[in-house]
Amino acid sequence: MAEGQTPPGWWQTVPGMLTATATIITAVTGLIIALNQIGLFNKKTQPAVDKPMPIAGKWSGQAKESAGTSFRVDLLIRPSCKVSEKCGTVSVSHVPCYGEITLKGVNGGDYEFFVSDFDNRSNLDVCTPGAGEHFKLLADGRLSYSTAYSDAKGTLERVE
């Protein structure tokens, strides 16, 4: 080494760089192991438990239009009902219409269904597919019924 030159720091030598690299790898590995042991990397999430539809079940009751026409409404909603899925059936006696229902959406406890796929008991001249069947669970355990396409209103009782 020439006179007047200062020797390089230990970290500027090959053994120093290897030591520094090994120290960093050891520290990072230790940190990863510690974080893994506290469960940061393998958090086991509880499987989502599908809650049954609050209005699931069989319902039946009377509805009435302002013109005075009274009719029976029967409803079946499966507990696994989800938005955009077929969930059950509805029938309206006076038309008659017997169709499958698909949950269109839920807004503030109001469940709106789309009715389609009417069976051979239905008057297909009158029964048309579409949304607008509304049901809402009441505080007393009954179900209110209304439609977006008429002024019909009613109350259904759980039958099962």
What's the total helix number?
1
Percent of sequence in beta strands: 35-45%
> H/E series, N to C?
HEEEEEEEE
Q: Approximately how much helix is present in the residues?
A: 10-25%
Q: Main sheet?
A: 8 strands, antiparallel, barrel
Structural class by helix and strand composition: alpha+beta
Q: What is the average per-residue confidence, as pLDDT, rounded to a whole number? A: 84
Number of strands: 8
Number of domains: 2
Segments where pLDDT lies below 50 for 5+ residues?
A: 45-49
N- to C-terminal distance? 97 Å
CATH topology of the largest domain: Lipocalin
- CATH class identity of the largest domain: Mainly Beta
Main-sheet strand order equals 1-2-3-4-5-6-7-8
Tell the overall outline. rod-shaped
Radius of gyration: 34 Å
Oligomeric composition of the shown chains: single chain
> Do you know the CATH architecture of the largest domain?
Beta Barrel
Structure description:
The protein folds into 2 domains: 12-44; 57-158, Lipocalin, CATH 2.40.128. It is of the alpha+beta class. The chain is built from 1 helix and 8 strands. The model is unreliable at 45-49 (pLDDT under 50). A hairpin with a 5-residue loop joins β6 and β7.
Keywords:
rod-shaped; alpha+beta; Lipocalin; eight-stranded antiparallel barrel; 8 strands; 160 residues
Helices and strands in order, then pairings?
Blueprint: H1 14-37, E1 57-64, E2 70-77, E3 86-92, E4 97-107, E5 110-116, E6 130-137, E7 143-147, E8 153-158
Antiparallel strand pairs: 1-2, 1-8, 2-3, 3-4, 4-5, 5-6, 6-7, 7-8
